[in-house]
Fold this protein.
Amino acid sequence: MDLKAINLEEKFARITEHWSPKIIAQMNDTHFKLVKIQGEFVWHSHAETDEVFIVLAGAMRIALEEGGVDLKEGEMFVVPKGVAHKPVAVEECSIMVIEPAGTLNTGDAGGDMTVDAVEWI
Amino acid sequence: MDLKAINLEEKFARITEHWSPKIIAQMNDTHFKLVKIQGEFVWHSHAETDEVFIVLAGAMRIALEEGGVDLKEGEMFVVPKGVAHKPVAVEECSIMVIEPAGTLNTGDAGGDMTVDAVEWI
């Protein structure tokens, strides 16, 4: 057992690319990922799972077909499974995404922003 | 669908008791709980699940049989399933606990600190 605390700031310091999730922890079959985001992601949905967003620094918007949700530091949102969404951040924003292991960042949409093999940091 | 961000500070403001977890979100069968802790909890383990602790304000220690882990704000730890642990906080500490719905706070230990019906806030 690794007896070291996982420090979120130290982990974020190792992330240099936007929209490139990195795994920092696992609980059963659930992955905890850190992502730095800026700009617009692609519209997509996850047919099999809900997806949790927690904003740790900065601010973002999760665009939804029926409007959207603005999140700032210390706020979270659960996108229900099957619901189309598009994460957007005007300025760089640091987030935690929590979802089952193997969940693709682009869901059903695919495309250039897909990260097939998410690395641990 | 509730289109409101979940603000952690606002949720914590509604918690007045120590060691009394409140549910603020659900992802599939996983619950996200907020807890204010102070003092010593009971030694216990969860035979069926890992358990995630994230410190949002203050500091705590997760005592383990082989030592323990100190966590401060912005740090997290995953207690593996079956591993005996005892959360401790000298001063009040605000944490998020993430685990499957229905997981008892005192695990296999039972006793007075057990919260059978965890409420949503």
